[in-house]
Amino acid sequence: MTDASLHTPEPRKKSSLMTVNARTKSRNASETRFRMYGIAAVAAGVFFLVVLLTAILSNGVGAFQQTFITVEVFLDPAKLDKKGGREIENIKKVSTFGYTPLVQQALFDAVEANGIETPLTKRKDMKALISASAAAQVRDYVIANPEQIGETVSFRVLASSRVDGYFKDRVTRTSVARDKNIKPVHLDLVDGLQAAGVIKKQFNIDFIVGADASESRAEQAGMGVSILGSLFMMLVVLGLSLPIGVATSIYLEEFAPQNRWTDVIEVNISNLAAVPSIVFGILGLAVFIQFAHLPQSAPLVGGLVLTLMTLPTIIISTRASLKSVPPSIRDAALGIGASKMQAVFHHVLPLAMPGILTGTIIGVAQALGETAPLLLIGMVGYIATNYPDGIGAGFLDPNSAMPAQIYEWAKRADPAYYERAWGGIIILLVFLLTMNIIAIILRRRFERRW
Amino acid sequence: MPVYWLIIIVLGLAALGYVLGRRRALASAGGDSRRLHSLPSYYGSNVAIKAVVPAFLLMIVWLLVQPLIVDNRVIGMIPQSEIREGSSAGLVLAEVRRAATGLENAVQSGAMLEIEARDSRADFTDMTQRLKDAGQIVTSTITQPILLAAQKYRELSNGGRFYMWIAVLAVAIAGAGWGLQGTTPDFRARNTVERAVRMLLVGAASIAILTTVGIILSLIFNTLEFFRLYPVKLFFFEPTWLPSFGGGIDSDGNPLSKLGILPLLWGTIYISLIALAVAVPIGLFAAIYLSEYAGPKVRAVAKPMLEVLAGIPTIVYGLFALLTVGPMLIGVFGADGLGWMKAGTAVMTAGLVMGIMLIPFVSSLSDDIINAVPQAMRDGSYGLGATKSETVKQVVLPAALPGIVGAILLAASRAIGETMIVVMGAGAAARMSLNPFEAMTTVTAKIVSQLTGDADFASPEALVAFALGMTLFILTLGLNIFALYIVRKYREQYD
């Protein structure tokens, strides 16, 4: 203390708050820089989101449109019903190979009728333009309406995937140079047919409701069957994980004594929430398929695996909403003579319900987008061409699921399938968005602040 | 008749029991429910529970035990001569089971008479053909002993089924009767019912434990099976991954497939590191900006937008890596650009996309942690004249550091366990290289490729997936427990 007073103070440098010295300047600069880093980070995150969404939309929207050819097919009795008599057994004997020439002839006639000049002079040259599914489409129609044989009927058939690609700028004249399936002359013809209104790009409902197709028929493939597969899976998930999750949470939150067993359960649940999804797939494969011999690729098994995966999410959110119900509600119920069980089931649970439902919807939405465990229980590689023929079959017959179908398409070699995969993602995201919006509305509408 | 009819009948009995129990309770109190110990519906539920629970328990036990007994009895009937070279009793038993199901279905569909299916002197060559004609799947010709065994199998299981029906129905009726018997005004029905409900709740809570036990057991058993077929040392220390299609053993007794985990672990770690290098700076700075600088309006818009990234399914990121990021990187680093990259699928592709996926993880977790730092610490720092960034760097971040490390570890465990992005974006070749533009593969991607397709579950090439799964499980679990420990320890400091 005394030392200090002996010291003669150095003359102070004259400075003013109004003039910024070098040190303050550098501190302020570093402040601005730091702030900029923050803005840049947020902007980068938002930028990635925008890029992702743009990529999805710009690549996927095309899948909802498809190129169709409208042709007048003469259902030649000499080919389709050689014996006459229109007996259904005889008509069914004619395979799609019998119908292909008729469709090709019809398109060839349309080319001539519209006076389009082309070096293609044979009926068979039309093959490159028409999807292989057209013959089957005509055949199905004839089998359903055998009396139409001998008439000329107008059909809207799918164009081949190359023609479709040409309409969507995926196939160009330079890219077809090495293509075995289509030649530039065909593309000239397509231009002519488009001008004549025979070929048109239209909205394709079959992409949303249709079934998957074989590798070579990208133009025919749709998501419908796998949407059903996902739906059945989500029914299993909802039917199992909601009651089990709610029961678990009620026990842990309201009844469980504070002992080691309860601790074990709690630690377990929080760890299960962080187990990689593929491990649940291994569990499903080992327990449900290898051990219990449940059918492979069945939505039931997929649902069971996803249930185990969703349970921790639902339990965590249910416990949070049970916790948010104030103790006064319980005390009041107990005070007028309700048992503990009655207080919980008659009062606490109904009040916590909006929160529980919100958590459940979010959990189910998460399960809907999950792919990895489905790969292991065989929900890929299976071509989902048939709709399940009933509720039981819907649960037990092999099927695909939306994300598994998208993965399947992404693996196929034909670039036409990439567009379908992006389109499938749009459908998947629409489902997820709807579910999340419902959850948000539920929360806004029913949330109570105590 | 299938089992679900039995379930429906038992449930019907329970419903009936509910009505009767409720009525009996009211009648015993002379129609005045105030004289009862509990509400009348509790007496009804009591009867219903006593009808359903023992009956269903018996049914489950029966369904589990009966096949074991039947298998045991039937396997004794198969002579040693039927078990061919390279086959086992289990395989023959499967054949017997198939034949028995074939017989059953043939009888059900009317293609065969009950007498014929039971006839032990039936000509077995004829039987094979007839089963095939009836549309049943018969893989090999049914021989005499197998046919006999199949007939016995069918007889035993059908007989067992029949007795199960009788036993279960008897137990259900007895249970309902017992419940009705006890329905007196003094009976504490509510306590009984509530005890049952409580048991149900405990049962539900145990499912989480059962899942973990299931995961661990299925991993351990199959991993042990794998290590029986493949040396442990080679799995952990061999630097090559090269499964051969047929499997087999070379002349020295070593397996032909080389299943070393090292290249897969390296790929996993490399991709995760790149992902974290993208996600941690962006996520952390975004969290700092949003919690310390941004106004409420910016926060209300930017935070949900970042969180949308977390809600997007991984298959979308996978496709994004495969079809957008891969070709884009090829354009810059490929043959037309710098010439470093040969194919679109590479460590860089998967790492970048995974990094994008992890941004919201890091940002929202760190956001919570930064917000948990008490305002008083910031105020103290401002009071000493520090600027905002100095406060963040020297006060807030050090205080939040353990929590942030925890968040990063959680993100790392996510990255290690991520499957779809690496399956689609990282390639399939297992190699150990430092070049991030080369294709590499990960533990998760190999689990998928070894377990999909028609792999035979007994081969080391398929079983290795369980050993990989086990490694993955232990790795992620360890990271999680460590991260949670750090986060929890830190939280206690300021609470």
Could you characterize the architecture of this molecule?
- The complex is a heterodimer of chains A (450) and B (495).
- Chain A has 19 helices and 3 strands.
- Chain A has 450 residues and is mainly α.
- In chain B, helix 9 runs antiparallel to helix 14 and helix 14 runs antiparallel to helix 17.
- With 495 residues, chain B is mainly alpha-helical.
- Chain B has 17 helices and 2 strands.
- The longest helix of chain B is centred in the middle third of the chain and has 41 residues.
- Chain B folds into 2 domains: 185 residues, no CATH class; 237 residues, MetI-like fold.
- The chains are: A mainly alpha (450), B mainly alpha (495).
Topology:
The complex is a heterodimer of chains A (450) and B (495).
Chain A: H1 2-6, H2 22-60, E1 65-74, H3 77-80, H4 88-93, H5 96-113, H6 133-144, E2 152-158, H7 161-167, H8 184-195, E3 199-203, H9 206-209, H10 224-255, H11 260-272, H12 277-291, H13 299-324, H14 327-335, H15 340-368, H16 372-376, H17 391-396, H18 402-411, H19 415-446
Antiparallel strand pairs in A: 1-2, 1-3
Helix pairs in contact in A: 2-19, 5-6, 10-13, 10-15, 12-13, 13-15, 14-15, 15-19, 18-19
Chain B: H1 3-28, H2 40-75, H3 89-108, H4 114-118, H5 124-133, H6 144-181, H7 189-229, H8 232-237, E1 241-242, E2 258-259, H9 262-293, H10 296-311, H11 314-333, H12 347-372, H13 375-383, H14 388-417, H15 420-425, H16 443-451, H17 460-494
Helix pairs in contact in B: 1-2, 1-6, 2-6, 2-7, 3-6, 7-17, 9-12, 9-14, 10-12, 11-12, 12-14, 13-14, 14-17, 16-17
